[in-house]
Each structure stands twice: as C-alpha cells, then as structure tokens.
Amino acid sequence: MADVQVLEPRRVPLGGVRNLDVWRTLPSRERTLVGAWCFVDHYGPTPVVRPGRDGMDVAPHPHIGLQTVSWLFEGQIEHRDSGGVHAIVRPGEVNLMGAGHGICHSEVSTPDTTVLHGIQLWVVLPERDRHGARSFQHHVARAVALPGATARVFIGELPGVDASPIETATPLLGVELLLEPGAHVELQVDAAFEHAVLLDAGVLRLEGHELSHAELACVAPGRRTLTLDAGDEPVRAVLLGGVPFDEQIVMWWNFVARTHDEIVAARDAWQAEDAGRFGVVEGYQGPIRRIPAPPPPVARLRARNRRPTEGPADNVLGETPASPAF
Ligand code: MN
C-alpha cells in the first residue's frame, strides 16, 4: 500500500471576474506532477443562481509552456483563444489547448448553463515542445460499457477499452469512470505510467484506500492493474496517468517554465500587452478586458519536481502568489 499517496484538496478562489471556488490537488506541498499532469482543479456541482448572469467568467489571461485540458460533467463553457479558436466545451468532449511560447484565452459559461461541474487540468510541455506554436484539439469521447462501469477515454489508451486520437507531447492517460453502486472494477494499465484517481461523486476505494470528494490518490509506476471498489452510491471519478516527467519546472500564476527569468519575461510581456507573444482574444464581451498579472515574484523562483518520497515542501506552490485562472 506504500505506493499510494492521497492528496487532500484545498479550496481556492479561481482568478477571474466572478468568484468560483475550486478544489485543487496539484500542485501540492507533497507532489508536483503525475506524469506530465501539473495542475488538477475540481469544481462543482455549483448551481448558477441566475443563468445568463452568474456562472463562470474568466477574462482573457495568458499561458506559456503548458496545455490546458477541459473536461466537464455538467454545464457548457464558451472558449475563445488567441489562436483563433472559438469552441463550446461540453460534457464528454475534451478540449486541449496548447500554449507553447504564448497564448491567451477566455472561458465563459453559456447562458443556458444552470450547473457548473467539471475539472480543469494542465499538462506541462517538455523542453522540446514548450517553445512551439499555439494549438487546439477536440475529441468526443465514446462511452464504453465495462462490467459494472462506463469508461470515457479522452486522452491516451486504456488497454482493451478505448484509445483517444488526441496527440500529446508525452505519454498520458485521461479517463472518466462511472461505477455502479457496489461495483468491483479491475483496469489494465501501463506499468510504465504513474497514475492518479480524482473522486467526484460517491465513495470509492482505490487499491483499498478510501477516497473522499475531490481527493487525488496517486499510484507509483509498476502496476499492471488498478482495482476500484464503489460504495453504495454511483461513483464518478477521473483516472489520470503518464510516464514520470523528469524535468524540473517553475510554476507561477498561469505560467509553466524552467527559470525565474523566463517567468518574469512572460509576466512583463503580458503586462506590456505584447500581442506578438500572446496574441489577442477576439469576441470576449466581459466587464474587464483582460486579467492583469500579479506583481512580479519578490523571491527568486526555484525549479522543482517534488516526488512522493521526498516529504512535504515548506511552501505550497512555491511560488504562486495569486490563484491561476484555469
Ligand atoms: Mn486558462
């Protein structure tokens, strides 16, 4: 059992125009990454009291060095980015936006959304890809019936179940799992991957470890199967995985880089409205034009990649002074 690490979520306000609290498990004091997954936020189900007026409104903000992965359980979000993409994020459909050297985007729940419920994930890009062009991929995941469960593979391959056509820079896995009450499910997995299970609804045991809402249970590489047991209610969970990522990274606000100076350069470029670096979002109609960057970091940022064997770090996100905006 020593190879299972359960990360407890912390509640943080999402940066943006309207307050939406999210439950964040990555990055944490104990751990920086699962594969190349570097950021895991869970939110909702949150009722939208006045549909069309309340809900999510995240004004244009920048990213570098990462891909955002949006996956909804309920509701819909209108996405606009400076790569010229205008898309609606819907439940069961994955959207993956590659920032490369620089991108900016906005996220607004649609007027008919009455409940916000989903996850927002980031993937760190490896050195050879992180300076590249903006990109966007979309895939409607199939619902595949298993004994006692339904699986939607949105990234990577779950052997014997399904594979997603989404292209990733490092080997990754992302699967939504719905388990029937009392179900016992054994999933075949790639032994070279480390894995993590995020619990959304119900009670779930992973390899005998009981998970609570929004907790993330991380499993070291070396396993060929993962065993999940549902409690007395239906379970919804998300399985993530990937080959351990060996580069040291710096995360600050919405940026993933390798050095302090890269972070400061990106921050200054955003504040200077450097459209050459980040482009421009067309068509966003919110109450503010863009989200300003926080003040520059005072202490020098250090690259990190905290593994479960190292014990807790003395400060949480190293490094993140203001909540990232998804
Ligand atoms: Mn974002």
What would your notes on this structure say?
This protein has helices spanning 260-271, 275-278; strands spanning 4-7, 10-13, 21-26, 37-47, 57-63, 66-74, 77-81, 86-89, 93-98, 103-109, 115-124, 135-140, 144-146, 149-155, 157-158, 162-163, 172-179, 184-188, 194-201, 204-206, 209-211, 216-219, 225-230, 235-242, 250-252, 255-257. Helices cover 5% and strands 44% of the residues. It has a 7-stranded antiparallel beta sheet with strand order 1-22-19-24-17-14-13, with no helix packed on it. The longest helix is centred in the C-terminal third of the chain and has 12 residues, at 260-271. It is mainly β. A hairpin with a 4-residue loop joins strand 7 and strand 8 (86-89).
Oligomer: single chain
Cα gyration radius (Å): 19 Å
The main sheet comes to: 7 strands, antiparallel
| Biggest sheet: strand arrangement | 1-22-19-24-17-14-13
Show unreliable segments. none
E-strand count: 26
Which range does the strand content fall in?
35-45%
What would you call the structural class? mainly beta
> What's the SSE pattern?
EEEEEEEEEEEEEEEEEEEEEEEEEEHH
Report the end-to-end length measured between terminal Cα atoms: 33 Å
Number of helices: 2
What small molecules does this complex bind?
Answer: manganese (II) ion
Q: Give the integer mean of the pLDDT values.
A: 93
Residues in helix, %? under 10%
